[in-house]
């Protein structure tokens, strides 16, 4: 409680007026087609890209005070916000170019987009007619993207005073930006909950599906497990999976005096007990880490592992179905990236299987955890 109180007070010192709005999710049943081939994945992808581009463009008409009010903040880092917008536009253009390669097979949501100017022009006039096959999807999608955009803009508005996954501090930090089109990586945070811990279930499900994921563990959790069970048992749990660290405990690593020891102790424990699974990756809890940590991480041979697609399945947030549908919508929008689930929330036990089933014939791929972040 003391940590939560101090962090809350610290946020207020930067002018936070209100908590973030509702977490974005979209009922995928509003979309009238199954993603049962790569072309139909592209159709849905083009639609989500254009809708997000529409709300992103609209947000640019707000001046700084109006944007701050919309985000529930007294002050915003406008430079950070504009940097984020520029990155979003670049990724939208690249993704639409990938998605329109199948326009000769299905022309739905295919418009003339040759460069950034034409993408912005199409975004400005994008709408779905009342008699469209896709009309039931249109307004729910617009609301989803408006909420999701606000989530991202709010993080950018607070960056770097409040660090998050919205931006990187250097090339020692990685997310899914550099991944190939249609390729995704599953990752699992330990988060703060002690129970339930669904690691055994998730790892077994992945093995049965011939898949792998990266589990970011807390050193304290591994120590507790080793007190209860053998090293061999723990190794069996994580068989064929990858393990990175999230620190000794789930706590912000941006204002913790012993953050370096937290990382170092966790790494040494995992490397010594689970050497076959260990990968040199540190995931900062809630994305919070120091901006001046490059020399430390490079000296330790570590990369900071961020993410692009957040299931928002933490305590008090989205449940299984809503979480899964959020992730699928963001997969269509971003077309590649690192997905972040919370392994200590039961939502993952329904969300992940649903997601894998829904995309089984869509032409996407799941990155092997040993090949990621290289």
UniProtKB/TrEMBL annotation:
<dbReference type="InterPro" id="IPR050248">
    <property type="entry name" value="Polysacc_deacetylase_ArnD"/>
</dbReference>
<dbReference type="InterPro" id="IPR002509">
    <property type="entry name" value="NODB_dom"/>
</dbReference>
<keyword id="KW-0378">Hydrolase</keyword>
<keyword id="KW-0479">Metal-binding</keyword>
<dbReference type="GO" id="GO:0016810">
    <property type="term" value="F:hydrolase activity, acting on carbon-nitrogen (but not peptide) bonds"/>
</dbReference>
<dbReference type="GO" id="GO:0046872">
    <property type="term" value="F:metal ion binding"/>
</dbReference>
<dbReference type="GO" id="GO:0016020">
    <property type="term" value="C:membrane"/>
</dbReference>
<dbReference type="Pfam" id="PF01522">
    <property type="entry name" value="Polysacc_deac_1"/>
</dbReference>
<protein>
    <submittedName>
        <fullName>Polysaccharide deacetylase</fullName>
    </submittedName>
</protein>
<feature type="domain" description="NodB homology">
    <location>
        <begin position="180"/>
        <end position="304"/>
    </location>
</feature>
<keyword id="KW-0732">Signal</keyword>
<dbReference type="GO" id="GO:0005975">
    <property type="term" value="P:carbohydrate metabolic process"/>
</dbReference>
<dbReference type="InterPro" id="IPR011330">
    <property type="entry name" value="Glyco_hydro/deAcase_b/a-brl"/>
</dbReference>
<feature type="signal peptide">
    <location>
        <begin position="1"/>
        <end position="18"/>
    </location>
</feature>
């Amino acid at each position: 409680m003391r940590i939560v109180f101090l962090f809350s007070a610290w946020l207020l010192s930067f002018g936070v007026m209100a908590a973030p709005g509702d977490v974005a999710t979209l009922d995928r049943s509003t979309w009238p087609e199954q993603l049962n081939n790569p072309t139909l994945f592209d159709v849905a992808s083009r639609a989500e890209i254009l809708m997000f581009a529409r709300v992103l463009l609209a947000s640019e008409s707000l001046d700084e005070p109006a944007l701050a009010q919309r985000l529930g903040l007294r002050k915003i880092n406008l430079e950070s916000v504009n940097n984020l917008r520029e990155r979003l536009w670049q990724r939208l253009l690249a993704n639409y170019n990938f998605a329109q390669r199948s326009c000769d097979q299905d022309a739905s949501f295919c418009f003339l987009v040759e460069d950034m100017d034409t993408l912005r022009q199409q975004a400005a006039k994008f709408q779905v007619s009342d008699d469209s096959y896709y009309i039931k999807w249109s307004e729910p999608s617009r609301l989803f993207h408006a909420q999701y955009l606000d989530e991202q803009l709010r993080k950018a508005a607070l960056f770097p005073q409040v660090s998050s996954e919205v931006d990187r501090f250097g090339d020692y930090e990685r997310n899914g930006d550099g991944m190939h089109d249609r390729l995704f990586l599953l990752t699992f945070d330990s988060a703060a909950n002690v129970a339930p811990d669904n690691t055994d279930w998730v790892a077994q499900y992945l093995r049965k599906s011939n898949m792998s994921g990266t589990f970011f563990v807390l050193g304290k959790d591994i120590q507790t497990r080793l007190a209860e069970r053998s090293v061999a048992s723990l190794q069996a749990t994580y068989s064929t999976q990858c393990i990175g660290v999230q620190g000794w405990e789930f706590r912000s690593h941006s204002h913790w005096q012993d953050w370096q020891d937290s990382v170092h102790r966790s790494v040494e424990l995992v490397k010594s007990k689970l050497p076959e699974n260990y990968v040199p990756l540190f995931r900062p809890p809630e994305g919070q880490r120091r901006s001046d940590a490059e020399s430390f991480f490079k000296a330790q041979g570590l990369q900071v592992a961020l993410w692009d697609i957040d299931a928002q399945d933490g305590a008090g947030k989205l449940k299984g179905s809503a979480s899964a549908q959020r992730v699928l919508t963001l997969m269509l929008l971003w077309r590649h990236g690192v997905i972040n689930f919370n392994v200590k929330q039961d939502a993952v036990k329904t969300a992940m299987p649903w997601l894998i089933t829904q995309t089984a014939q869509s032409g996407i791929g799941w990155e092997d955890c040993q090949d990621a972040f290289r």
